[in-house]
Design goal:
globular; two-stranded antiparallel sheet; Alpha-Beta Plaits; six-stranded antiparallel β-sheet; 128 residues
Length: 128
C-alpha cells in the first residue's frame, strides 16, 4: 500500500496488514527483531532517480511489499535541499529489509530493472 500524505517529506510503502492490523514490519522469519537484532541486521538498499522514476518503481514494488517479501520502502517527495547542496539532484528511495534477506530483496529489485547496488545498515544511519 502506497501511503502518500502531502505534508510528509516521504512517500511510504507498507503492507495493508501493517497499516490496518498493526503487525510488526521490522522482523526476520516472521518474528519481530529485538533492539540488538535491529542494530545488527536491519538496513536498506539505496536507489536514486527522479520522483517519476521512483513512483513508477514503487508501483511495481508494491505487490512485493503487500506479500511482505519487502518489509517497507520510502522515497523522497522531492530532492532534499541538503542533498542538493552536495550536488545530488535526484530523489532517494530506501528499500528496508533484514540483511539476512537482502540478496532475496536485491533479486526482486534486479527483476524490476534496478542495476545499481548500494547497501547501508540502519545502525550507520543512526550513528551519523
Amino acid at each position: 500500500m502506497i501511503v502518500d500524505q502531502p505534508g510528509s517529506h516521504y512517500i511510504f510503502l507498507f503492507s495493508r496488514k501493517y497499516v490496518y492490523g498493526g503487525s510488526d514490519y521490522i522482523k526476520y522469519q516472521n518474528k519481530p527483531l529485538t533492539n540488538r537484532e535491529y542494530l545488527q541486521h536491519w538496513g536498506k538498499w539505496f536507489l536514486l532517480g527522479t520522483r517519476k522514476e521512483l513512483e513508477e518503481l514503487a508501483d511495481r514494488l508494491d505487490p512485493y511489499v503487500e506479500r511482505e517479501q519487502i518489509p517497507c520502502i520510502k522515497f523522497n517527495r522531492e530532492v532534499q535541499k541538503d542533498f542538493e547542496e552536495m550536488l545530488l539532484r535526484e530523489c532517494v528511495m530506501c528499500i528496508y529489509c533484514d540483511e539476512r534477506e537482502r540478496e532475496d530483496v536485491w533479486e526482486i529489485l534486479a527483476q524490476e530493472g534496478v542495476k545499481t547496488k548500494a547497501w547501508q545498515y540502519e545502525k550507520n544511519t543512526l550513528d551519523a
